[in-house]
């Protein structure tokens, strides 16, 4: 139907109820993936894992938390990009071997996945999934073993070697991160420590907070809020943040050099993926959407009676458009909150008609009026066409379609589930052809320059953004 982000990750350290906190955090990140959910927890000596297909509330029941006791946890919600939609690809991934256990959750997508997997298989590694996340896990294990990680035969010997192995494990993570290429935000744990990692370009978001005397890592700040935590900062591009009983340590893999990449946060986080109550890299998501709507109103004004937004991510831009244009804002469209992205329709036509189940117009807001409808994007055009039909059916006199992102002309290879290029309507059609295809009276997209202007009005010193789906130029 549209664009889908791959997943959300969370890590908890130093909280007695780590599994419950992970559950709350993952529930707040449910918008990032609805196909599977999982939590791994360490009690200091052993890691236990539970994961399954479905929403967080479906996967976890009270009995699971009684079994998942411990103070360190990593959790994951998934929307598949790399690897199929099967239980084998559900996360976190866990690897147990004679030196201990590792659990890992990943948001993003590797571009050198195939060559890394082949190299690991040539060295004797075996895989139980088709996910690039398992490749990262096996690569870390390989580095750890090569570095001499080991445990003694008795518990006393093992306890003496825990600190040494922690150091070797961190070194293995650093080495592995330098070999993987693409977009990634990782939460990694052993029995004793938690590590957060963000890719050198900062494409996928990851932030840090405090919860009581412990720490929380999460894809979005709203997850920190959900556990009554205190947001501290974003993990920097190329940063490896280590938390253990000794405290915290930050390792920067981006050396200070002229050719090091700058921050390239995925720009669609602000358009669509992130929750409006999140703050990503210093930019409040809802404020960014207001500003995009304001710029869109200045770039593409039209005489009308009402401005409405497509729930949920089009609402902020619609309010910004109304504020800048002086055209009154109204609700106009209601969303069925009980139909999620996991709703299954057996045929393509039924999937296309799904918008009639999810959205409906409020006739009293629209009948006889010239309507400006704001949406976050147009991908295939199917949803937009159905939306126009819904508005006209409710009596709209005119329908003027405005989009708060530029035309999506290129696929994403860095963690967003996008159609192939020939399925993207803006890649194969001119503006007037798209307008005719969706049946609107007029159509306009925000310019890429206008979108950047909107984001920098929220944070003037903002770094760069990944704009590959608009420009075809990717940071990796």
For the secondary structure, the number of strands is 25
Average pLDDT level:
89
Shape: elongated
**Considering DSSP H and I runs of 4 or more, what fraction of the residues is helical?**
25-40%
Query: What kind of oligomer do you see?
Result: single chain
The secondary structure category is alpha+beta
Largest sheet: 7 strands, antiparallel
Gap between N and C termini: 26 Å
Major β-sheet strand ordering: 4-3-5-2-11-10-12
What fraction strand?
25-35%
| Total of DSSP H or I helical runs spanning 4+ residues | 18
Walk me through the topology.
Blueprint: E1 4-5, E2 7-13, H1 18-28, E3 36-42, E4 47-53, H2 56-59, H3 62-67, E5 72-78, E6 93-97, E7 100-110, H4 113-122, H5 132-146, H6 155-177, E8 182-189, E9 194-198, E10 207-211, E11 214-218, H7 221-226, E12 230-234, E13 239-244, E14 247-252, E15 264-266, H8 268-273, E16 279-280, E17 283-284, H9 285-299, E18 306-309, H10 315-325, E19 333-335, H11 348-352, H12 354-358, E20 359-361, H13 363-366, E21 370-375, H14 382-393, E22 398-403, E23 416-417, H15 425-428, H16 431-438, E24 442-445, H17 448-458, E25 464-466, H18 468-471
Parallel strand pairs: 15-25, 18-21, 21-22, 22-24
Antiparallel strand pairs: 1-23, 2-5, 2-11, 3-4, 3-5, 6-7, 7-8, 8-9, 9-13, 10-11, 10-12, 13-14, 16-17, 19-20
Helix pairs in contact: 4-5, 5-6, 9-10, 9-17
Account of the 3D structure:
The chain is α+β, with helices and mostly antiparallel strands and 476 residues long. The chain is 34% helix and 26% strand. The chain has 18 helices and 25 strands. The longest helix is centred in the middle third of the chain and has 23 residues, at 155-177. The chain is elongated and about 70 Å long. The model is unreliable at 341-346 (pLDDT under 50).
């Amino acid at each position: 139907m549209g664009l889908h982000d791959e997943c959300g990750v969370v890590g908890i350290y130093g909280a007695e109820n780590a599994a419950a906190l992970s559950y709350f955090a993952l529930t707040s990140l449910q918008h990032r993936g609805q196909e599977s959910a999982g939590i791994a927890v360490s009690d200091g000596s052993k890691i236990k894992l539970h994961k399954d297909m479905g929403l967080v509330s479906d996967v976890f029941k009270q009995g699971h938390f009684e079994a998942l006791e411990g103070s360190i946890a990593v959790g994951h919600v998934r929307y598949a990009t790399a690897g199929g939609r099967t239980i084998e690809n559900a996360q976190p991934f866990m690897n147990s071997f004679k030196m201990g256990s590792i659990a890992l959750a990943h948001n993003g997508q590797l571009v050198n996945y195939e060559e890394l997997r082949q190299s690991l298989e040539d060295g004797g590694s075996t895989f139980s999934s088709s996910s690039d996340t398992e490749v990262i896990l096996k690569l870390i294990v390989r580095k750890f073993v090569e570095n001499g990680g080991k445990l003694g035969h008795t518990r006393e010997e093992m306890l003496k070697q825990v600190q040494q192995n922690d150091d070797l494990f961190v070194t293995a993570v650093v080495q592995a991160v330098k070999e993987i290429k693409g977009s990634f935000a990782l939460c990694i744990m052993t029995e004793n420590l938690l590590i957060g990692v963000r890719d050198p370009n900062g494409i996928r978001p990851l932030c840090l907070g405090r919860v009581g005397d412990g720490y929380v890592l999460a894809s979005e700040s709203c997850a920190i809020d959900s556990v009554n935590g205190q947001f501290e900062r974003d993990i920097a591009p190329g940063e490896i943040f280590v938390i253990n009983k000794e405290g915290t340590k930050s390792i920067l893999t981006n050396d200070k050099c002229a050719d090091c990449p700058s921050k390239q946060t995925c720009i669609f986080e602000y358009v669509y993926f992130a929750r409006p109550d999140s703050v990503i890299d210093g930019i409040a998501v809802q404020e960014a959407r207001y500003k995009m709507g304001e710029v869109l109103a200045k770039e593409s004004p039209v005489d009308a009676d009402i401005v409405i937004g497509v729930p949920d991510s089009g609402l902020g831009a619609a309010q910004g458009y109304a504020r800048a244009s002086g055209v009154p804002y109204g609700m106009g469209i209601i969303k069925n909150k009980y139909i999620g992205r996991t709703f299954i329709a057996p045929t393509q036509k039924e999937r296309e008609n799904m918008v009639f189940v999810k959205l409906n117009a409020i006739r009293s807001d629209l009948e006889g009026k010239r309507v400006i409808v704001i949406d976050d994007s147009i991908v295939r055009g199917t949803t937009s066409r159905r939306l126009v039909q819904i508005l006209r059916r409710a009596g709209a006199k005119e329908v003027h379609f405005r989009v708060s992102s530029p035309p999506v002309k290129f696929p994403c290879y860095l963690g967003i589930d996008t159609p192939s290029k020939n399925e993207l309507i803006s890649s194969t059609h001119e503006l007037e052809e798209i307008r005719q295809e969706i049946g609107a009276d007029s159509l306009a997209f925000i310019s890429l320059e206008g979108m950047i202007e909107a984001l920098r009005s929220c944070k003037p010193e903002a770094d760069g953004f990944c704009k590959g789906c608009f420009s075809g130029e990717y940071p990796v």
